[in-house]
Write a structure and sequence with these properties.
single chain; 530 residues; pyruvate-formate lyase- activating enzyme; OB fold (Dihydrolipoamide Acetyltransferase, E2P); 17 helices
């Protein structure tokens, strides 16, 4: 039997509009589990479309996608059915929670709902090997005599099981130039924020459970409002934060490096949740208490930094998201010690503390974020901040406070402000509430203009500077991806070919809102000719 795992994440309708250099953690977990028993191949969406021999050879095909990827999902399922009608097609990833729609809309066989580790093990025993009934596979959706059936609700994988799984690391078999990509390595699964919006119109009865000092009590909501920030599905889908062991993470990073990875991102809804679950009894459901587990974070980062390719600077380790309420001077110093020059993202969403807390269920204050930006900047990190527009129940006053917060963030030295539009997602408190722009159109326009102006100004700050970047050629154009992340560098059309995968020094020569322009100053290193 031949297993094919296809990464459809962030492909939208069939093309990536952002995060072009990302390799997600989820598909690698699935491929790793399958490869323990079967001949398995992991491929990105782009490579599969047109790879008829690979698709024809697969007996079972697994697709990982998000809700926003249904267009691409439909295309790849159609392609598989044309090329290999007998293949067993299983869909998973965040989109799996919409199993009813998927099974009705697409010609697929199964949907694994939620985290895959436990259901996939049983799937292999019952369906791949035929040792038991499909009804015995937990969290599995399928059509039973034309009726959509779900065997059990989704389940959360315990941390010891997370640490026992060996994810796929042979990225040189799936990517032509693995050194270019940010390869995400899961450090924490789930989120520690189990607060909920206190909004009567969505059913809140103001019982106070989700703001209790008892972690277990925060899990239960008599009104059945999904936990976490009202726009985010992570707590519902993936449960409370659980950390993988240091040994399992370090081993995975070592193997990825052996297979060509040069840019590693420690994946977590909040990397500062790492090891906090070890400080509490029961589930970790409070986003700000207890404080960050400094010892656990330093052990992880120091062990990774001790790897020779990392200590020599040939491999970069990065992080992505943190909660501002967990940042203090000690945390910032530890991050700066091991991750200097890397970006770090902080969610703020609006400039109103009351709105963030009561309406979004997000206990993050503007002062928390401004302080975090200052501390991270002081310790040689590059803070980015997320803001949102078109949120439900956001009045002109909320936007006015957000504009004020932009000025405060600018004064603190934030490198970039990422402003994005609220989109309702399944398994969130606001899943049935559409974006709201009526009556605040002018405020949204002002906020967009201010953020655009600030980000353009920040990009102009790096004019003339030299940046290390990896090169990718696409459709006759050349792009540079900064080693430690940052804006994509457009290098235009270059007469010389064969720069794909090369590490170069680029001088930044121009700045735009979404990108910068540059020229290659020096080629540091190129992959050996195949």
């Amino acid at each position: 039997m031949r297993m094919l795992v296809i990464d459809v994440l962030a492909r939208s309708t069939g093309k990536r509009y952002s995060t072009h250099d990302v390799v997600g953690a989820g598909p690698r977990v699935v491929a790793g589990m399958l490869s323990e028993k079967y001949d398995t191949l992991l491929m990105p969406y782009e490579k599969v479309m047109g790879s008829k021999d690979v698709v024809r050879s697969a007996t079972h095909i697994f697709l990982s996608a998000m809700s926003s990827d249904k267009g691409a999902l439909g295309k790849v399922v159609g392609y598989i059915r044309r090329v290999n009608p007998s293949a067993v097609i299983t869909v998973g990833g965040p989109v799996g929670f919409e199993y009813g729609e998927l099974l009705k809309r697409f010609d697929i066989d199964y949907v694994i709902v939620g985290e895959a580790e436990i259901p996939l093990q049983r799937f292999m025993e019952c369906i791949v090997e035929g040792g038991c009934s499909k009804h015995e596979v937990p969290a599995l959706g399928f059509r039973d005599n034309g009726v959509v059936t779900l065997t059990t609700r989704h389940m959360h994988t315990p941390s010891d099981v997370l640490s026992s799984i060996k994810p796929w690391t042979r990225i040189d078999e799936m990517l032509d130039y693995p050194q270019v990509y940010r390869v995400y390595v899961e450090a924490v699964r789930g989120c520690s924020n189990f607060m909920r919006p206190m909004v009567g119109s969505i059913g809140c009865i103001f019982c106070g459970n989700c703001r209790s000092s008892m972690n277990e009590e925060r899990v239960n909501c008599p009104a059945n409002i999904p936990p976490g920030c009202s726009f985010c599905s992570v707590p519902s889908m993936f449960g409370p934060a659980r950390s993988r062991s240091v040994d399992s993470i370090v081993k995975e990073v070592e193997e990825l490096i052996e297979h060509g990875a040069r840019r590693i991102v420690l994946s977590a809804p909040d990397i500062l949740d790492y090891g906090r679950d070890l400080l509490v009894n029961g589930p970790l459901t409070n986003p700000c208490n207890p404080p960050a587990n400094i010892e656990a974070i330093e052990e992880l980062l120091s062990r990774l930094n001790a790897l020779k390719p990392v200590s020599q600077g040939r491999v970069v380790v990065m992080i992505e998201n943190i909660k501002a309420c967990l940042v203090n001077d000690e945390v910032a110093k530890i991050l700066g010690k091991y991750l200097p020059g890397t970006t770090v993202h902080i969610g703020l969403e609006t400039g109103s503390d009351v709105y963030n807390d009561k309406v979004l269920g997000k206990p993050i204050k503007v002062a928390d974020v401004v302080n975090a930006v200052r501390l991270l900047k002081k310790n040689s990190l590059r803070p980015y901040v997320y803001l949102m527009h078109s949120l439900p129940f956001a009045s002109g006053k909320i936007y006015e406070e957000t504009l004020k917060a932009v000025n405060e963030l600018g004064g603190a030295g934030v490198e970039k402000i990422t402003l994005y539009k609220y989109t309702p997602l399944p398994y969130t408190a606001f899943e049935k509430i559409p974006p709201e722009e009526r009556g605040v159109e002018e405020w949204i326009a002002r906020l967009k203009a201010v953020v655009r102006r600030y980000n353009t100004m920040q990009k102009k700050e790096i004019l003339g500077k030299h940046v290390e970047a990896f090169i990718i050629e696409s459709n006759g154009r050349v792009y540079g991806y900064p080693v430690k992340h940052g804006p994509v560098i457009f290098l235009g059309r270059i007469a010389r070919r064969g720069l794909n995968g090369c590490l170069v020094i680029v001088e930044v020569t121009g700045a735009r809102y979404r990108y910068v322009k540059g020229r290659i100053v020096r080629i540091k290193e190129c992959p050996p000719a195949s």
